[in-house]
Specification:
47% helix, oxidoreductase, D-arabinitol 2-dehydrogenase activity, 255 residues, 8 helices, Rossmann fold, EC 1.1.1.250, SDR_fam, 7 strands, alpha/beta, binds nicotinamide-adenine-dinucleotide
Length: 255
């Protein structure tokens, strides 16, 4: 299951899983129609130039607002109805906004924490509730390099704090559930080219150059650059890892 999977990094994670042989997937997103379209598109793409037929896949799109616990519980109930179990859950739904601390309206700060922090918590809690009776599973919370460094020049204090919270949340939950077979790890991307960042960059052409100059590898990441890390963390390949973080940031955090 992937939250925020209709587009952006979440959608790229869906593609990475299917490329790695996954045939059963629930794509959750605030935008239900886009989630359903993403599911159809994923199946169509997977069948291109392959021996596989659409009937080989069970990929569904569901509407879900991760900031509402009730909505998350409903989506998990629908997923369990469709598949009978849930082995891997990726919490990718998240938003970013750039306001200086003095200018940031409180209702928007609250909404950001509701999605980025509480949404990740509701998703992880519901995942573990379903995974523990079946013997375990893997949860990946998508944080950010912003959990480790302060981005410049754009101001985004609540976002940075939300991503640090997600990272520490993953470690805390990992300890709570370690003996129950549920692993919880964090993926921390650097600057990636997705709709989220393209929206920011559309207002500021110089910003991309600044971000690239601050990244040792001299470029922004393509969403596909995260494919190996997300498949590794979500699968048994990482079975002795829990409470860990993988940074994929072109070296941003090392300088
Ligand atoms: N793009 C980057 O450079 C970057 C870097 C580090 C971390 N991240 C993190 O990666 C995650 C995905 O970012 P992205 O760049 O793909 O963003 P995006 O805006 O391209 O996609 C986010 C998806 O989440 C969905 N979403 C938003 N609010 C939701 C809600 N309340 N409930 C369910 N779905 C909701 C959106 O509809 C969208 O499909 C976020 O958590 C973000 O903080 C992104």
């Amino acid at each position: 299951m992937i939250t925020g999977g209709a587009r952006g990094l979440g959608n790229e994670f869906c593609r990475a899983f299917v490329r790695s042989g996954c045939t059963q997937l629930a794509i959750l997103d605030l935008k239900e129609e886009e989630a359903k379209d993403a599911a159809d598109e994923l199946v169509a793409t997977a069948c291109l130039n392959s021996d596989l037929a659409p009937t080989d896949f069970n990929i569904i799109g569901l509407g879900c607002d991760v900031s509402s616990e009730r909505s998350v519980q409903k989506a998990f109930a629908e997923t369990m109805d469709a598949f009978g179990r849930v082995d891997s859950v990726v919490a990718s739904a998240g938003i970013v906004e750039n306001y200086s601390a003095f200018d940031y309206p409180f209702d928007r700060i609250k909404r950001l924490y509701d999605i980025n922090v509480h949404g990740a918590f509701f998703t992880a809690r519901e995942a573990a509730r379903n995974m523990i009776p079946q013997g375990g599973g893997s949860i990946v919370l998508v944080s950010s390099m912003s959990a480790n460094i302060i981005n410049i020049p754009q101001p985004q204090t609540p976002y940075n704090a939300s991503k640090a919270a997600v990272k520490h949340m993953a470690a805390s939950l990992a300890v709570e559930w370690a003996k129950k077979g549920v692993r919880v790890n964090t993926l921390c991307p650097g600057y990636m080219l997705t709709k989220l960042t393209k929206t920011i960059l559309s207002h500021d052409q110089e910003l991309k150059k600044t971000w690239e100059s601050l990244t040792p590898m001299g470029r922004m990441g393509e969403p596909e650059d995260l494919a190996g890390a997300i498949v590794f963390l979500s699968s048994d390949a990482s079975r002795f890892m829990t409470g860990s973080e993988i940074r994929v940031d072109g070296g941003y955090c090392i300088i």
